From TrEMBL:
This is Unannotated protein. InterPro entries: FN3_dom, FN3_sf, Ig-like_fold, Striated_Muscle_Regulatory. It comes from freshwater metagenome. PANTHER family: FIBRONECTIN TYPE-III DOMAIN-CONTAINING PROTEIN, TITIN. Keywords: Repeat.
Length: 246
């Protein structure tokens, strides 16, 4: 479930409020990147058009979700009012959502352990523009177990200290990530980051207090880091735990 824009939802990646739209493909009109002005020196203006296709979106894996960001190519001469995101699973179009004019969003309710890609089109008052190239492929994760522990503090006014003693261990086809709870503040959520070649390739947000079991991770070598979050702010990232996932 994705919460209203501006509210951080446990087990989701970021912010967003996608709404399902009908499966009928939107009508896409030709775009004109130079719609706002006519030829140089002509002294004329051209009618606005639909926006151009956004640049290829970047996708990041989350818990049954993906965080997407992209860059607009052109507006068609009018403000962007929203975006349509097409969702592909194993190469097949399985759904569309409409989101607002921001260029980053969480797309939820995805199937864990299945490959997904996404394409984005921008909207303005004229209509929906052409879709971008598809994003990189991601495989959403799923949390299958929570590790409980008492909160280290009831103080919600302090920013949490960084989690310590982070451990990441493969358990059959899943991975257990555990940590020691900060003692200076109450924590609302933890961000679990999976890093390869200095780049975050998957991020899970969980309200599990002391750890989480995650299914759907690709084989590979990861640095795993954890960050604690509450209403006062976010802790520094923990020291990394090395994970070899086979």
């Amino acid at each position: 479930m994705v919460t209203s824009a501006g509210t951080l939802s446990p087990n989701l990646l970021a912010y967003g409020d996608p709404a399902v739209i009908p499966a009928t493909p939107p009508v896409i009109a030709p775009s004109n990147p130079d719609a706002a002005t006519g030829p140089p020196g002509s002294g004329t203006t051209q009618a606005p058009t639909v926006p151009g296709a956004p640049l290829q979106p970047r996708a990041l894996s989350g818990l049954t979700s993906s965080w997407l960001d992209w860059t607009e190519a052109s507006t068609g001469g009018l403000p962007i009012t929203g975006h349509v995101v097409q969702i592909y699973r194993k190469g097949e179009l399985v759904g569309r959502v409409v989101v607002d004019a921001d260029e980053s969003h969480t797309i939820g309710n995805l199937r864990a352990a299945s490959s997904h890609t996404f394409a984005v089109a921008a909207m303005n008052a004229v209509g929906v523009g052409p879709f971008s190239e598809r994003s990189n492929t991601i495989i959403p994760l799923r949390a299958t177990r929570a590790f409980s522990a008492p909160q280290g503090s009831s103080n919600t006014d302090a920013i949490p200290a960084r989690p310590t003693r982070v451990r990441a261990q493969q358990v059959r086809s899943s991975v257990d990530v555990t940590w020691t709870v900060p003692e200076n503040a109450a924590v609302a959520n933890y961000e679990v980051l999976f890093i390869q070649k200095n780049r975050v390739v998957a991020k899970a947000i969980t309200d599990s207090v002391a750890g989480v079991r995650i299914f759907g991770l690709k084989r590979g070598v990861y640095a795993v880091r954890v960050r604690a979050v509450n209403t006062a702010g976010s802790s520094p990232r923990s020291k990394f735990a090395r994970l070899v996932f086979r």
